[in-house]
From TrEMBL:
Keywords: Porphyrin biosynthesis, Transferase. PANTHER family: PORPHOBILINOGEN DEAMINASE (PTHR11557:SF0). Tetrapolymerization of the monopyrrole PBG into the hydroxymethylbilane pre-uroporphyrinogen in several discrete steps. This is Hydroxymethylbilane synthase. It holds the Pfam family Porphobil_deam. NCBIfam families: hemC.
């Protein structure tokens, strides 16, 4: 809702239009178990897709990292804008009042909460002694469980904290983020040219090119919601786009990695090359070893 309100405010500023925010609770929001039980991250999209297709809503706002890469999007819909990317980093937070300041300070066997297998795989490579446990829910509920003492630390996306206006000390982790981290995808019906033209005012070319490279890599790998796949693209001072990709086993003991650079306008080709290189190095076996 915070993300939708932010996009709505920006549209009002750019085009002097009336925008109503329509809240939709998805099956992914309602379900408290593992997302795999609902078929993965698509559980956050199905009801919103239906609202767009039936005209209940004209524009939808998604976290790009929650858009599956192995399931095609409805052809009637289009991502008309990727606003400028927010911080893509993961941050580790500690209970309020804790003397612990960073992951290195955590005691052996400390309990760390996260819902992402990608984070778990990378955390246990650094600290195999940690107990990394499954944690879902909105940001407020996760922070409550942290501060109650249920966890010694939790890992969240920096972008989500920023969008919610939560300024809380924590350690920015040097792990590779998820594909699409920090990126919002603003979607509308392809046939509604007036709405699409309005939404395109929000589009940020560099973010679109980086997102395109990352998504092409994800599509090439055909990973599911339980796949520990990480990928991040950036355009450097030299004007070239660099994409890093990694695939892990669930316990982080094995990994394959790839990195390629090229012209930004060829980002999707770059993503396909990185995916192909990862597959040559054995990524398919690592992905298929983890149940959906």
């Amino acid at each position: 809702m915070a993300q939708a309100r932010g996009v709505a405010a920006r549209l009002r500023e750019l085009a002097d239009v009336t925008v109503e925010v329509v809240g939709i609770q998805t099956s992914g929001d309602r379900h408290r178990g593992h997302l795999g039980e609902l078929g993965g991250k698509g559980a956050f999209l199905r009801e919103i897709d239906r609202a767009l297709l039936t005209g209940r809503a004209d524009v939808a706002v998604h976290c790009l990292k929650d858009v599956p890469g192995d399931v095609p999007r409805p052809g009637e819909l289009v991502f008309a804008a990727y606003p400028e990317r927010d911080d893509a980093a993961d941050v580790m937070l500690f209970p309020a009042g804790s003397k612990v300041q960073c992951m290195a300070d955590l005691a052996p066997g400390a309990r760390v909460g996260t819902s992402a297998v990608r984070r778990r795989a990378q955390l246990v490579r650094v600290r195999p002694d940690l107990q990394v446990e499954y944690l879902r829910g909105n940001v407020d509920s996760r922070l409550e469980r942290l501060d109650s003492g249920e966890f010694d630390a939790i890992v969240l996306a920096r972008a989500g904290l920023t969008r919610l206006g939560i300024d809380r000390p924590g350690e920015t982790l040097g792990i590779l983020p998820a594909v699409g981290s920090g990126v919002l995808a603003v979607e509308c019906r392809r046939a509604d040219s007036d709405v699409a033209d309005l939404v395109r005012l929000l589009d940020h070319r560099e973010t679109r090119r980086c997102a395109g490279a990352e998504r092409a890599m994800l599509h090439g790998l055909q990973g599911h919601c339980n796949s520990p796949i990480a990928g991040h693209a950036r355009i450097g001072r030299d004007g070239r786009l660099t994409l890093r990709g990694m695939v892990f086993t669930q316990d982080g003991t094995r990994l394959v990695r790839s990195e390629e650079s090229g012209p930004p306008e060829k980002g999707e080709d770059l993503g396909a090359r990185v995916a192909a290189d990862l597959l040559r190095k054995g990524a398919r076996d690592l992905i298929d070893a983890i149940p959906h």
